[in-house]
Amino acid sequence: MTITHPTPIRLLEKALVMYVGLLMVSLLIIFAIEPSIYTTTLWPGWVPTERYPWPVLLFLAALLAFLSMLIYGILHRWRWLFWGLLLAWSASVIQIPIEGLQLLGVFPNPYPIWYSLFRVGVGFTELGFACWMIQSYRQQGVWAMRRNVEQVSHLVRTELGLIEYRSVGQGPVVLVLNGGHTNCHSPLGHETFFLAQGYQLIIPSRPGYGRTPSSTGKRAEAFADALVSLLNLLQLDQVLVVGISAGGPTALQLAGRHPQRVSKVILQNAATDGRYARGIIRFLTYLFFNPVLEGMVWAAFRSLARIAPQSALKCLMWGLTCLPIDQVLSAMSPDQRKGALAFLQASRSGSGFLHDIQHHCGDLGRVTAPVLVITSKYDGLVDSSHAIYVQDHIPQAQLFVSEAESHLMWFSVHDHEIQARMQAFLQLGSMRA
């Protein structure tokens, strides 16, 4: 079954506007019944002669004007306001225990108990909003603006869990397992190639990416089994499988565990032999691409890309090639540089990449389908030993070493050679019924 959801960002906007509106009403009520709270906040120890002194009135008016601006900014989706609210409300993690200690008498409390309890409630509410905003950002970006440019995807409930996928084209089906930091909406380097060959592409978001939850299968073999459930749901007896980079282990697990469902396999710079992301790469993965920090890391990269696109591209290419970065970039056409930058700007890690670095390809002796293994000679992330490992363990595997200058083989002057090799492989025999 296909699952539809109400637009989450609209719910978030309405809830935020309602909350700020209630906060404005609360400030007026507090001012009416206990104006001394404001004088204590402004000038501790000051005892005014009037019940409603004019400095407090000005302060309240400024607060109400500020909150009105927040409502306006929420409705108009100001980017800086999203981050400002998220940072401010995340600080409630500190505010809540301080208020609690004041109520317990550990710290002096200048306010009435009822007001301290009110502030605790506000703190928990704002912390809840911060978590909601983080979840919204991880799925759809700042104020969900990314969803306006994404293509339509489906979220289906299979026997083994939820799977998000995108479908495009008509013809024999190619199941594309994207690499790390990508989902079903990420730019696909050879999408145009497969569509021109008359194929239909089914592109799922692997667990931890996009809307496919980690519970569907943190291990490659578990998601391979879940993919069979997806094929059953779509009434597909057999597919050609493309495994890209970190999607390689899942592609091989699917071909090995369910050989009757796979007609052919194409691996593109695929990690295969269990030595993926070791040493410093594994350390940096846990440090920067964990579910807590990855959103901020990629947001910082996108900000750099807007200000200095060439520097941003160089920043991420250093780990993707063995050649001097300037040499790699100079070999790209302007369109290829633009495409590579767009590809990297669309990246998000979710919790998926932490799963990826634990994946293994399983017993390759069970793979019966023809396999084309494509590796870039100068790949700085997944070296040729991964491709050789597959060639050594799958007798029918064909190895093609491309002169592509980096891990991103699609953005190379040698991509036409890769496409020609894939075309020849696709024309060998036909998909079994």
Number of helices: 17
The pLDDT mean sits at 88
Shape: elongated
Share in β-strands = 5-15%
Give me the oligomer status.
Answer: single chain
Could you please say which CATH topology of the largest domain applies here?
Rossmann fold
What's the CATH class label of the largest domain?
A: Alpha Beta
Structurally, how many domains make up the residues? 2
Spatial strand arrangement across the major sheet: 1-2-4-3-5-6-7-8
What is the distance, rounded to the nearest whole angstrom, between the alpha carbons of the first and last residues?
25 Å
Count of DSSP E strands? Answer: 8
Compressed to H and E, one letter per element, the order equals HHHHHHEEEHEHEHEHHHHHHEHEH
Protein name: AB hydrolase-1 domain-containing protein
Organism: Dictyobacter alpinus
Keywords: Membrane, Transmembrane, Transmembrane helix
InterPro entries: AB_hydrolase, AB_hydrolase_1, AB_hydrolase_fold
Summary tags:
single chain, 433 residues, alpha/beta, Rossmann fold, 2 domains, eight-stranded mixed β-sheet, elongated, disordered N terminus
